[in-house]
Amino acid sequence: MSDERTAMAALSDPAERLALALTQGGLQRMTARVLAALLFTEQETMTAGEIAETLGISSGSVSTSVKALTGVGLIERVPAPGSRREHFRLPEGAWATLMSGQNMMVKTMSDAAEQGIATTGEESIAGRRLTEMRDFYDYLWRELPALIDRWRSTKTEQS
Amino acid sequence: MSDERTAMAALSDPAERLALALTQGGLQRMTARVLAALLFTEQETMTAGEIAETLGISSGSVSTSVKALTGVGLIERVPAPGSRREHFRLPEGAWATLMSGQNMMVKTMSDAAEQGIATTGEESIAGRRLTEMRDFYDYLWRELPALIDRWRSTKTEQS
DNA sequence: TCGAGATTTCAGAGATCTCCGAACATTGGG
DNA sequence: CCCAATGTTCGGAGATCTCTGAAATCTCGA
């Protein structure tokens, strides 16, 4: 059937599904696909051009996505070993990084609740609800980094 | 001053800010505002009509939002004590519930990685990256429920 | 220093999403 | 049993977002 894949690799089905999952997590569609491409490639690194070809998207989209991803530390530029231009890859611990990003939202929620309490007081009806909320997110804010650290140590001692 | 608030309450500024934060977390704007209204109100419960008036939005939007929120367990219908129709409020532990929803994404990520490994094998270049990813999300998937349970118990013993 | 290839920026077309408003359904009281 | 008040569904206008394509910019090697 009308198969347009001529010389381009295209993402495997699991890769596209993973990209979709990342989308739910807040990434843009193309950004998620770029990440998936770098995750599923059998090369150590990819150039911007290779990414564009694999996904069948414009170089402009790749540029924007790559900018966003490096900004959050989800991919890194590799100093370019040989001749070409920019090479990219997932850094060690990319997923822990992504998780830390989620943590910022936890902090935001805690702060928002705190601000609410500042205007209602702790003992009003709304104040009690807000206090419960703040306490919960405060707890997560304190415990999540420890959880991730524990992951890092178990991984270290394995190697 | 051109103050259009005639008989409607309008959300406080902290409430609107919290709604915005919830938006980042994946909720729609109106849905987030409905949740914020129920969080900041000084009443124990609110009717759909009160929510619509407070937020200045259509009853249709309230209906849709309420449907979405009850679906995830973030608000609950209260059996209506007296005469009127439907009353709503935040249930106990709503935030833990919301967090559990986030966990589903962790599971999704883990599964996506697993599927990837199924096609690449564990020892290919991509396979190694996917394995690292799967192990990390598996770890979270195992540990996060425990973290939330610990929160629940500390809260219990306080009371 | 120059040229070719690679990358970034950006305006705008197209796709997508959101929310309203009105028609329709439902429920409880009189 | 009917009516009035409340709740739900859904089409579509408007707002928003996304991605492309092309022009501008940059960089390296010769």
Could you characterize the architecture of this molecule?
2 copies of one chain form a homodimer. With 159 residues, chain A is mainly α. Chain A folds into 2 domains: 3-89, Winged helix-like DNA-binding domain superfamily/Winged helix DNA-binding domain (Arc Repressor Mutant, subunit A), CATH 1.10.10.10; 94-158. The first copy, chain A, has 6 helices and 3 strands, in the order H-H-E-H-H-E-E-H-H. Chain A has helices at 13-24, 29-40, 48-55, 59-72, 94-120, 125-158; strands spanning 46-47, 76-78, 87-89. A 3-stranded antiparallel β-sheet of chain A has the order 1-3-2. In chain A, helix 1 crosses helix 2. At the A-B interface, helix 1, helix 5 and helix 6 of A face helix 1, helix 5 and helix 6 of B. The structure holds a DNA duplex (30 and 30 nucleotides).
Question: What share of residues are in beta strands of chain A?
Answer: 5-15%
Helix amount of chain A: 55-70%
Oligomeric organization of the protein chains = homodimer
Query: Roughly how many Å is the radius of gyration of chain A?
Result: 21 Å
Number of helices in the DSSP assignment of chain A = 6
Can you tell me the overall shape of chain A?
elongated
The largest sheet of chain A has its strands arranged as 1-3-2
Helix/strand structural class of chain A? mainly alpha
Instruction: Give the overall average pLDDT of chain A.
Output: 88
CATH superfamily of the largest domain in chain A: Winged helix-like DNA-binding domain superfamily/Winged helix DNA-binding domain
CATH class of the largest domain in chain A: Mainly Alpha
> From the 3D coordinates, which CATH architecture of the largest domain in chain A would you assign?
Orthogonal Bundle
**Biggest sheet architecture of chain A:** 3 strands, antiparallel
Largest interface in this structure: A-B, 50 and 50 residues
**How many domains in all of chain A?**
2
List how many beta strands of chain A DSSP finds: 3
Q: Give the H and E element order of chain A.
A: HHEHHEEHH
CATH topology (fold) name of the largest domain in chain A: Arc Repressor Mutant, subunit A
For the termini of chain A, the CA-CA separation is: 48 Å
